[in-house]
């Protein structure tokens, strides 16, 4: 009898340890990018206190390093339990077509999420009759950041078009500002490129580039590259060695006048640098993109073969919840992907982004995975590098056209 009781007790301990479980969350949100994710994990842990969370990060802005590590793990059959992936083609054209993800439609049904998220966002994460990830946020890519006091002292304002930007750049150079624009490593140059291109082609032209109606070799795209070259002439010469945070620092300290970056920069200015919106940092819509919201969304999916599937499902539930999103986004600089978030928790910058999200024409970001598969985006970095070195717009557009054909963009 005693033996039986002991056995029962041992079994109970074992099963509660089992229920406690583990969870590996994979992302590139380390260091300065970490606080928002940590806040979300805190919400998860309050609900599931026994679960040991492995917050596995591979540092590097825009996931340049993390995506390579993820690829090795996915192809090697050791996927994380849940991983960060951009909504759109990065998810669909990479992992869904390869049949590596679980369909989350049942989760969307049980959580009532088909009404909680904007329809278009659900479309972006859907294909082949399935829904493939849970979006945690919406970031805006087309923002120009500046230091209000410095702009005032230089007597300039945020330019509204790229030609106006070039005039402002000349003015600033004449005042002794060596690099009116600050830009960082390769992906931030791609980020700048997409903003120059959208500001040149317009939202409709940008969409046509990704549905194949506008060819990369079109004279309008060649002209966009030429403008991008002139814009790069206004930038710092040590770009390739700077992270996006180091580029943002040069706005905060007033070394450069402008930086084009997604609104994780707002998260960095407020959460890390403790700067106040409108005084510590200012913002304007990127030149030529008024009334357009260039979007991207960070989402998390459930790979087939996840070791801790049940915990991963609970993680996704927290990530898609109102409490989870309103803990994460005010620190991150993004707005909630959900429609019912509590805006009183957000700062002035984020409130303005939330208003624009409702009123603007929405297009997807290239660099951050919305419009093209990873195979295109990762190879496009070399096109930008070559262009920055050679300034040969025709060669760049020919190379991009080849990549587009290879990626099936037609
Ligand atoms: C983006 C990502 C953002 C932010 C940024 C900088 O691709 O969607 O959440 O992390 O990279 O690393």
Label the overall shape. Answer: globular
Secondary structure category: alpha+beta
Tally of alpha and pi helices: 18
Strand content: 5-15%
Determine Rg (CA atoms, Å).
Answer: 22 Å
Euclidean distance between termini CA atoms: 73 Å
State the main characteristics.
410 residues; alpha+beta; binds beta-D-galactopyranose; five-stranded mixed β-sheet; 51% helix; four-stranded mixed β-sheet
What is the topology?
Elements: H1 2-20, E1 22-27, H2 34-47, E2 52-57, H3 64-75, E3 82-86, H4 89-96, H5 105-110, H6 113-116, H7 119-124, E4 126-127, E5 130-131, E6 134-135, E7 137-140, E8 143-146, H8 148-154, H9 162-174, H10 186-210, H11 219-232, H12 244-252, E9 259-261, H13 264-272, E10 282-285, E11 292-296, E12 298-301, H14 309-319, H15 322-332, E13 335-336, H16 348-359, E14 361-364, H17 374-390, H18 393-406
Helix pairs in contact: 2-14, 2-15, 10-11, 10-17, 11-18, 17-18
The structure holds beta-D-galactopyranose (GAL).
């Amino acid at each position: 009898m005693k033996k039986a009781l002991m056995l029962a007790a041992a079994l109970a301990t074992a099963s509660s340890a089992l229920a406690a479980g583990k969870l590996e969350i994979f992302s590139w949100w380390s260091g300065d990018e970490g606080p928002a994710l940590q806040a979300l994990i805190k919400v998860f842990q309050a609900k599931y206190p026994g679960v040991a969370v492995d917050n596995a990060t591979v540092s590097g802005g825009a996931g340049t390093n993390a995506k390579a590590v993820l690829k090795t793990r996915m192809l090697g059959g050791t996927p994380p339990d849940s991983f960060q992936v951009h909504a759109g083609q990065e998810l669909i054209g990479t992992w869904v077509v390869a049949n590596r993800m679980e369909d989350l439609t049942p989760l969307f049904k049980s959580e009532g999420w088909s009404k909680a998220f904007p329809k278009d966002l659900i479309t972006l994460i859907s294909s082949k009759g399935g829904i493939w990830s849970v979006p945690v946020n919406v970031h805006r890519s087309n923002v120009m950041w500046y230091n209000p006091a410095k702009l005032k002292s230089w007597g300039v304002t945020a330019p509204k078009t790229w030609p106006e930007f070039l005039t402002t750049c000349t003015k600033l150079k004449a005042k002794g500002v060596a690099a009116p624009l600050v830009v960082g490593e390769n992906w931030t140059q791609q980020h700048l490129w997409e903003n120059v291109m959208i500001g040149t082609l317009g939202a409709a032209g940008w969409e046509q580039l990704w549905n194949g109606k506008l060819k990369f070799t079109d004279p309008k795209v060649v002209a966009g590259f030429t403008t991008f070259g002139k814009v790069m002439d206004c930038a710092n010469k040590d770009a390739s060695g700077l992270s996006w945070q180091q580029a943002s620092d040069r706005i905060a300290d007033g070394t450069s006048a402008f930086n084009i970056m997604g609104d994780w920069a707002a998260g960095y200015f407020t959460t890390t640098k403790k700067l106040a919106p409108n005084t510590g940092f200012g913002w304007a819509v990127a030149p030529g993109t008024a009334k357009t919201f260039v979007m991207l969304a960070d989402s998390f999916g459930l790979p087939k073969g996840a070791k801790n599937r049940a915990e991963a499902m609970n993680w996704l539930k927290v990530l898609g919840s109102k409490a989870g999103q309103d803990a994460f986004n005010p620190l991150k600089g993004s707005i909630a992907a959900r429609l019912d978030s509590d805006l009183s928790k957000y700062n002035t910058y984020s409130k303005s982004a939330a208003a624009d999200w409702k009123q603007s024409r929405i297009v997807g970001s290239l660099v951050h995975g919305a419009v093209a598969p990873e195979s295109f985006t990762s190879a496009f970095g070399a096109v930008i590098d070559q262009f920055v070195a050679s300034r040969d717009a025709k060669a760049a557009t020919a190379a991009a056209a080849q990549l587009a054909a290879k990626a099936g963009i037609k």
